[in-house]
């Protein structure tokens, strides 16, 4: 099939353009009424980031959208457009591509209504790869940086922590064949809690709409928790020149997963002491003066593993 | 090496940020003073789009930037920012990555001064892949679409036509080993003209600054010539509901390459009859009423091959 034919099938499955100039010209033109644009890009690569035995076309479209939408939200902005670059093996089925487009659409409609795919690129690759750029609008508000946390602020999160990491462990532990290669997921073998964890991994549902809400409520710092709470909180602490002190009893029954599990795309934010947290956020700790460690858990430096680094953590032989 | 260490080395080699919020947070924030942003994305994949035996890290950085900068220019806009997603094999040398960053920087400094890399993403992949998004500003002017060509307009181009295609043919014809695999380029074996063609392929130099110039001069339609003049002119003709009539004697000594060779990233534009062409543009034909074919060459429908489609043209076994 030619690129033109594939594109027309994809465009038919995508949300309708809202741009000044949408797909089909050399570039899109988008309104940014407050004179600024928020922009971020994130890539999913077959192998380290997903496996086709575990991830459907729909899942891939969904996840490649939401991991970027979440980064826009973490600045306090509302996502308005995606640009989607899809590089895929020549033998990729048209049905897979259409499912992928449907996943993009469902993710936009669900977590960022009004956001549409306004541009993209198709190419051939031996390795299925999706690179998405998300653009957003701050709607007149200042961006919320990770560097703004102040001593005394309340540390809060919105969204799940730990579930996506447990979901990944489920895939590795239960859905590989005798040689360690990924194999199809048997949903009937999962408890309700396990199914929820798997869904958090394959089709995460980050609280994108709460990004602008937190900004409007005066969040002093905010970021997306993509690599695990401890690792991301330490980045916020480093950027702000403070330490973040977390109470593990605020993290639910599985505090260990909540501290180190990645890919939940929760929002981590700080708010001035005494301010009312916006609905959807829950307090998990406080910002304190720079201590021996950027993150303290129950008052002590945290020494467990701190999140996901594909350069050190991905082992191609593992499955 | 960790992602953080690689990133710090890359950032040191990049042009300085000009953004409200540059690299290092969840997303960049860029000023768009006229309330609009131009956005485009294009991907280069090892195999169909480049070969490491032929393309240095610097070349890859350069080309991945300019193919996107050219798309921004083709809307009549000035590029202001790049987001660069780099997916690479684990064994990729740090020196290659630093050369890649130097190529990005040199391309911005050379063809779009003031444009900087304001965000990006690093991940591991079996297939070296670069997905770049370019953002730009229309500086108060309306975008120049490919759909605006009107009967009687002069058809003009800025930049080279055919050289990049001849450069690609040189690589395939002269720099493959007995098994057909790409091998190192021996520059001393090339004539000056051949070296220029090779440079047009590996390190294209599109007339990015002429995009806004053409817009200011009243270009009625404009697009980037990336897939060959005939194919791209036919796209402009289809979008505008007209035909484009090209005089082959305006295309230099090698009209055949100029008509079908891809990847030059020249600008194809139309201007009202009788208007003075901006410096850098040369007339190659006229817009006429819709004829039997969207593109006429010397008055006849063009029947030669019309450009590059990776879905049909890339043969992995070819080298």
List the helices and strands and how they pair.
Two copies of one chain form a homodimer.
Chain A: H1 3-13, E1 28-31, E2 36-45, H2 57-73, E3 78-88, H3 94-111, E4 116-124, E5 129-137, E6 154-158, H4 163-174, H5 192-202, H6 210-216, E7 221-225, H7 229-240, E8 242-246, H8 255-260, E9 266-271, E10 282-289, E11 295-297, E12 300-301, H9 310-313
Parallel strand pairs in A: 3-4, 8-11
Antiparallel strand pairs in A: 2-5, 3-5, 6-9, 6-10, 7-9, 8-10, 11-12
Helix pairs in contact in A: 1-3, 2-3, 4-5
Task: Describe the 3D structure.
Two copies of one chain form a homodimer. Chain A has 319 residues and is an alpha+beta fold. The first copy, chain A, has two domains: 3-137, 60s Ribosomal Protein L30, Chain: A (2-Layer Sandwich), CATH 3.30.1330.10; 144-308, PurM-like C-terminal domain (Phosphoribosyl-aminoimidazole Synthetase, Chain A, domain 2), CATH 3.90.650.10. The first copy, chain A, has nine helices and twelve strands. Chain A has helices spanning 3-13, 57-73, 94-111, 163-174, 192-202, 210-216, 229-240, 255-260, 310-313, and strands at residues 28-31, 36-45, 78-88, 116-124, 129-137, 154-158, 221-225, 242-246, 266-271, 282-289, 295-297, 300-301. In chain A, the strands form two sheets. A seven-stranded mixed sheet of chain A has the order 7-9-6-10-8-11-12. Chain A has a four-stranded mixed sheet with strand order 2-5-3-4, with helices on one face. In chain A, α1 runs parallel beside α3 (94-111), α2 (57-73) runs parallel beside α3 (94-111) and α4 (163-174) crosses α5. The radius of gyration of chain A is 20 Å and the shape is globular. The model of chain A is unreliable at 307-319 (pLDDT under 50). At the A-B interface, β1, β2, β3, β4 and β5 of A face β1, β2, β3, β4 and β5 of B. β2 (36-45) of chain A pairs antiparallel with β1 of chain B, so a sheet runs across the interface. Chains A, B: It catalyses: thiamine phosphate + ATP = thiamine diphosphate + ADP. Chains A, B: Keywords: ATP-binding, Kinase, Magnesium, Metal-binding, Nucleotide-binding, Thiamine biosynthesis, Transferase.
């Amino acid at each position: 099939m030619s690129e033109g034919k594939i594109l027309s099938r994809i465009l038919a499955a995508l949300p309708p353009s809202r741009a000044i100039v949408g797909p089909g010209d050399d570039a899109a033109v988008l309104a940014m009424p407050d004179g600024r644009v928020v922009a971020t890009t994130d890539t999913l690569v077959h192998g380290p980031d997903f496996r086709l035995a575990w991830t459907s076309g729909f899942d891939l479209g969904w996840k490649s959208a939401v991991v970027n939408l979440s980064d826009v939200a973490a600045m306090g902005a509302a996502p308005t457009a995606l640009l989607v670059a899809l590089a895929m093996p020549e033998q990729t089925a048209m049905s897979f591509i259409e499912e992928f487009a449907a996943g993009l659409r469902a993710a936009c409609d669900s977590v960022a209504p009004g956001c549409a795919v306004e541009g993209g690129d198709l190419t051939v690759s031996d390795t299925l790869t999706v690179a998405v750029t998300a653009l957003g609008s701050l709607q007149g508000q200042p961006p919320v940086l990770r560097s703004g946390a102040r001593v005394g602020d309340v540390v809060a999160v919105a969204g799940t922590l730990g579930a996506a990491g447990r979901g990944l462990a489920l895939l590795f532990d239960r859905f590989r064949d005798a040689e360690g290669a990924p194999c199809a997921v048997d949903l009937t073998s999962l408890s309700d809690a396990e199914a929820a964890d798997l869904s958090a991994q394959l089709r995460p549902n980050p609280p994108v709409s709460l990004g602008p809400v937190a900004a409007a409520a005066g969040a002093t710092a905010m970021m997306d928790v993509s690599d695990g709470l401890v690792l991301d909180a330490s980045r916020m602490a480093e950027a702000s020149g403070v330490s973040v002190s977390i109470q593990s009893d605020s993290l639910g029954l599985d505090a260990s997963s909540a501290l180190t599990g990645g890919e939940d795309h929760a929002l981590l934010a700080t708010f001035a002491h005494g301010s009312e947290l916006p609905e959807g956020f829950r307090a998990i700790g406080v910002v304190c003066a720079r201590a021996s460690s950027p993150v303290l858990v129950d008052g002590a430096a945290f020494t467990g593993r701190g999140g996901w680094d594909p350069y050190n953590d991905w082992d191609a032989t593992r499955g």
